[in-house]
Write a sequence for this structure.
C-alpha cells in the first residue's frame, strides 16, 4: 500500500494553482470540472508519477472551520521537503511569500513555516 493522493484545503482553486505552480514550483497534473469546482492536482516536477496534491475547495463549513482554526493556532496543514531550506527560504521571500517562522534548527531537521495565501500554513523541512 502507498499514498497516492493527499489534499490541502484552499479558499480559491485558481489562486491556489497559481501559487503552487508559479511560487512553489509544482506542476499541474489534473484539471477537470466536478460540479461547481474542479478536480485540480499538482505534483512535484521531481516525481510526476508520485503523490498528487489535491487543491481541494474549503466550501464545506466543517472544512472551512477546521482550516481557520488550525491557521489561527499557527499549525501547518502540510509539510514539504526541500534539499536546501535556506536557498528556498530566500527564493520564496524574494517572491513575496510571508514566513511565520524562518529556517530553524530542530534537531534532526531544519524547518520553516509560510502562508500559502489560500488559508494554510505550510512547513518546509530539510533533513
Amino acid at each position: 500500500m502507498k499514498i497516492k493522493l493527499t489534499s490541502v484545503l484552499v479558499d480559491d482553486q485558481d489562486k491556489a494553482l497559481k501559487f503552487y505552480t508559479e511560487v512553489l514550483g509544482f506542476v499541474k497534473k489534473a484539471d477537470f470540472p466536478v460540479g461547481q469546482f474542479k478536480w485540480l492536482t499538482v505534483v512535484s516536477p521531481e516525481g510526476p508519477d508520485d503523490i498528487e496534491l489535491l487543491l481541494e475547495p474549503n466550501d464545506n463549513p466543517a472544512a472551512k472551520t477546521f482550516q481557520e482554526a488550525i491557521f489561527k493556532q499557527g499549525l501547518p496543514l502540510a509539510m514539504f521537503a526541500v534539499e536546501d531550506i535556506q536557498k528556498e527560504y530566500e527564493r520564496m521571500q524574494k517572491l513575496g511569500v510571508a514566513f511565520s517562522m524562518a529556517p530553524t534548527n530542530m534537531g534532526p531537521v531544519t524547518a520553516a513555516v509560510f502562508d500559502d495565501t489560500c488559508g494554510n500554513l505550510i512547513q518546509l523541512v530539510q533533513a
